[in-house]
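Changelog note: in this version the structure field was regenerated for every chain. One regenerated record is shown below for reference.
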Amino acid sequence: MVPGGTSPFHHYSWQIQELLKGVKGRWFNGALFGLGATDMAGWGFNTVHSYTAEEANTTLADNPDLLKTEPVFRPEPDELFTVMDVTKKNEILAKGIPALSRAAGKQKLNNIYEDDNINLNTTEMRPNGTTHTDDVWFHNDMKALPYLQSFKLYELLSN
């Protein structure tokens, strides 16, 4: 969470980043959630028109077009409701739209590997260890570690 520092949350940085979309400046986020939070859409609820879960479901069933002008979640930035250029679309996707799919490696990939997941923190997958002090595999190590530490994964993916 701090450049050059360590945090007990470093293994959960992807999930934390997704949860912080849209909560910047909200009363419940506190000082911690101000770090890395965005003010775009996300999980921030609309404070102008606040829905209960039942109201949101009823509106979705009876009048879904109303949600375009009075959404459940934070209606920011304004460009979200207009025709926009590719750069703005990419920014909103990165900062304002939480991921709706599972994390990579969560579901079974039959055409690559027969098991549910590939456990990269085994001596079979990493016979030469890693360059990390606690000898674990991190999120982007596929491209960050030298071939000496990642060759088993490349062999598995190339079959």
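Spot check on this record: The chain has a mean pLDDT of 77. Residues 122 and 129 are 9 Å apart (CA to CA).
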